[in-house]
Amino acid sequence: MATLRAALFTLFQFCWTGTLGLPFLPILAMDRKHSQALARVWLEGMLWGARVFLGLRAEVRGLENLPKGGCVIAAKHQSAFETFLFHTVVEDAVYVLKHELGRIPVVGWYLRSSGQVFVDRSAGGTALKSMVKEVRVALDRGSQVIIFPEGTRVAPDDQLPYHPGVSALYTQLQAPVVPVALNSGLFWPRKGFVKKPGTVVVEFLPPMPPNLNRKAFMVELQSRIETASRALAGLPAPEASAQDRSNRPKSESI
User: Fold this and answer.
1) Does the pTM of the predicted model rise above 0.85?
2) CA dist 6 to 79, 101, 160, 192, 214, Å?
3) Does 113 score more than 80 pLDDT?
4) What percent of the chain has pLDDT over 90?
5) Which residue in 71, 154, 155 sits closest to 163, CA to CA?
6) Contact in structure between 19 and 64 (CB atoms under 8 Å)
7) C-alpha pair distances (Å), 205 with each of 109, 198, 209, 226
8) SS3 for 95?
9) pLDDT level of residue 239 (50, 70, 90 thresholds)
């Protein structure tokens, strides 16, 4: 039954994407707000499909911790589910994405049209400078910028070193940074076709304190996100910081 439900959701995903993506292509020539509005409709539909076909719902906590206007949301990343969710929770979501996603036909066109921030991981320091510049523009117009510090999806009982991109946004732009914990990996595995029914909890934590140095910021950010995410998953607190592990595989983004 679980396999059938997953198959029905996948079919719905392709049909829903095609239904909105192709007829509304003229939006690509309009202001980014039109693409953002269409993205919200598409993602609300994806969440509806997850509820109907997978029995998967979302509970969002801690919205009082979100400041008004532009901010950086540093989130744990365990599944594709949270990539659907943020756009329907905040007013003007902008994701920091690997540049390969912008090359996907139709979907990539809309991502670029809506003002998402793309990072070329092979460009090193140049990519970091470009990301900071683009995020500054997004924050100045009041967008909420979502970045996944580990750079890739990670299972609930694991963690990877946090990449320096988020600390660059914090130190160079002095933007409010809101950590986000979640437990989506319990229901939507990082690898695998079958999903489990249940309630994904996404928790916005209090913003990071201002004026920390880079190292203190990274340690505190990781501690907050990992501790809260493991608690949501019913796991014990992390024993050691992944930031200090040198033998772990590298993640996929800045």
Assistant:
1) yes
2) 14, 23, 28, 10, 42
3) yes
4) 85
5) 154
6) no
7) 33, 22, 12, 12
8) strand
9) confident
* Backbone CA torsion sign across 245, 209, 82, 26: negative
> Of 92, 123, 95, whose CA–CA distance to 107 is shortest?
95
Q: Which two tokens stand for residue 186?
A: 């319990």
Which residue, chain included where needed, has tokens 């995903």?
13
26-52 burial, b for 16+ CB within 10 Å, e for fewer?
ebbeeebebbbebbbebbebbbebbee
149 and 165 Cβ atoms separated by less than 8 Å: yes
CA atoms within 13 A on the CB side of 225: 32
Q: Decide: residue 65, CB within 10 A, 0-12 exposed, 13-18 middle, 19+ buried.
A: middle
Strand partners of residue 96? 117
pLDDT in tens, 79-109: 999 999 999 999 999 999 998 999 898 889 9
Q: Give the dihedral sign, CA 89/94/97/100.
A: positive
**What pLDDT score does 240 carry?**
56
Q: pLDDT tens across 16-32, in order?
A: 999 999 999 999 999 99
- Do the beta carbons of residue 190 and residue 80 sit within 8 Å? no
Q: What single string gives the DSSP state of each residue in 170-228?
A: HHHH---EEEEEE-GGGTS-SS-S----EEEEEEEPPPPPTT--HHHHHHHHHHHHHHH
In whole angstroms, give the CA distance from residue 140 to residue 246: 36
Note the maximum CA span of the chain: 52
In terms of Cα–Cα distance, which of 151, 114, 148, 153 is closest to 134? 114
Q: Comparing 76-90, 118-132, 177-191, 229-243, which segment has the lowest mean pLDDT?
A: 229-243
Bridge-partner residues for 58, per DSSP? 200
